[in-house]
Structures are given as C-alpha cells and as structure tokens.
Amino acid sequence: MSSRPTVLLIGDLAHTNQEWESLGGKYNLLEFRKGTREQFLENCRNGTYDGVRGCYRSNVSTSITGPFDKELVAALPESWKFIAHNGAGYDNIDVDACSAHKIAVSSTPGAVDDATADVGILLLLGALRQAHEPLVALREGRWKGRSRLGHDPRGKTLGILGMGGIGRAMAHRARSFGMEIIYHNRRRLDPSLEKGAKYVSFDELLAQSDVISLNLALNASTRHIISAPELAKMKKGVVIVNTARGALINEADVVAALESGQVSAVGLDVYENEPEVHPGLIKNDRAFLLPHLGTSTYETQRDMELLVLKNLQEAVDHGKMLTLVSEQKGLDWAPKEVDS
User: Fold this and answer.
1) How far apart are CA 261 and CA 254, in angstroms?
2) If we measure between CA atoms, which residue out of 208, 203, 210 comes closest to residue 174?
3) Which of 89, 57, 6, 91 is nearest to 311 (CA)?
4) What are the catalytic residues?
5) Which of 275, 138, 17 shows the shortest CA–CA distance to 31?
6) Phi, psi torsion values for 240, nearest 5 degrees
7) Is residue 138 within 8 Å of 113, Cβ to Cβ?
8) How do residues 40-80 score in pLDDT, each as one tens digit?
C-alpha cells in the first residue's frame, strides 16, 4: 500500500485538469466526477474512500452528491479531515456537522470579488435605468417599447449589507458613479477598509438606502433577511440588488413589493429556488434578471479552481489552509491559516 496521501476530486474541473493531474506526483488521486448520492455514500461505506485525507468539491457537484449535510458528513471515513470547496458561498455544506467531526472547510473568497461586483454594478445600473423593457422591445422590433425614464446613480445612497470582499469591491465601483456608501456588518470594519463608507445599523440601512445590495452569506440567521417587515422599512421606490444567495430574499414578498411600488426595481443574479424563478419576477418588466452569472468568466473560474487546489495541498501537506471558513476560525482543533 502506498504511503502517499489520497485525495478525491468530486465533480468536474473546467480549467485546471492539468494541474490536478500533476498532483499525482505526490498524491493518490481518486475521482468522482459523475454519479449519484447513493453511489457516493456506498463508496464511503464499502471502503473505497478509506484513507482519503481531503477532497476538492464545488457548488456544482451538489447535483451529483447532494449537499454535504449531516448524513453525508457522518458517512465520511475517519481519515477525511479537509474539504476544499470551490465557491465563495458554501451553504450546501453543513459546517457544524463538519466541525463536530473535526473536518476543516475552505472556500474561495477573494477570487470571486471582482467578477461578482462587476455583475452587481451591471444589475444596479440595469435596474436603475429600467433596462429590461427596452432590451426586450429592441429584439422584438418594437424599438424602445414601453420604456420608462430611469434614474442616475449619482447622488444616490448605496446600502451594502455584508461588507466583505465582494461588498468592498462593489463599494469601490459604486463610488466611481458618485454614490454615497453606507453599510451594515455583524461588526464594523477597521477604518482603513471603509474608504469613507459609513457604518450604520441594519434598520438605518433599510431606511436610508436608495439602492440596497446584498453581499452576505446565507445561513440560518440570514435566510429571508429581506422579507415583508424589512421591505416596509425601506424608502418607497428602493432598488434591490442581489448577487449573493437567492434565499436571503423572500421572493414572494419582493414580488408583492414590486407590484405595489414600494420597490421600484430589482437586479437579481440569484434566486430562492434555482433554477426556478418566481413567475412574478419573470413577468415584471422592472425586474432586471440574470441566471447566476456572478463568477462566469474564464479568469475568475480558473482562479477559483487554482485556489481550491492550493487549499487542498496546503491542508494535506502542512495541516493548514489559506481560506478557512469563518465559522471554524479560532476553534482549538482547526488548522491555522496561511498567507496566500
């Protein structure tokens, strides 16, 4: 039996197959690029994955194994200590279950910041300028159709809910359009990171923002953080942008607010029950919609894959991770973080 560590690829790679294969020089490489959840669980039960130290997995691989929930995590062999995840969001991994088994989880913050913020600004401008109707009308031979006058971003207040890397990249771009930036986090940023943005309470952000951008993680405490009670506290005619996770928003409540005029427009890249989209959003011409394209560039997706591979190697070789998820930072058993 080889003494080399064993690592597992779950799902496919688009841009780094050569880099993955090169790891065969120091690891035993296993792959589960396609299959079913039951097949994966059977591999865990029958010893196929005995000795696996860690894995590469992505949000897309959830379609193969299902979520890394309590059942699946409990089935992993005792040797399995690291999950290197491809995605800034990791709501399809039960981090509490992983922590209970002392399995460390990394994600890909940083690598996604610019591309996601670019899409956020696209949605912000598309919603402010009421761009959906003229885009559709032009292709249908109706020129501008029933176009409405939009609004300039200049002088508007952008409220960023979640001022992490993506939120700060969004703020940086929005300043170029003359927007004032306020934000709310669990805790205030170091002033050196604020770049003039003003820290406010959640209720203050709701009341003061002309545009609200959601840039926070989805978890039990943030699910439906924007619902009817929060929408009622916003300025009439507010614009809502979401590039984070669809379930941060109660879509039915947002549709009702669009129809009443409380919300003037939305720019959305993510949805509560993807790939399904609420029919009230589909039929509303003040909803500027994209099909989850936030990180859909060659450069960003390659950078994400490379970061996952770096996390996996750092974990297996040195017991450390570059981008450990926040819930595990400071736990006595958790690996130390290293500079990228």
Assistant:
1) 10
2) 210
3) 57
4) 245, 274, 292
5) 17
6) -120, 130
7) no
8) 999 999 999 999 999 999 889 999 999 999 999 999 999 99
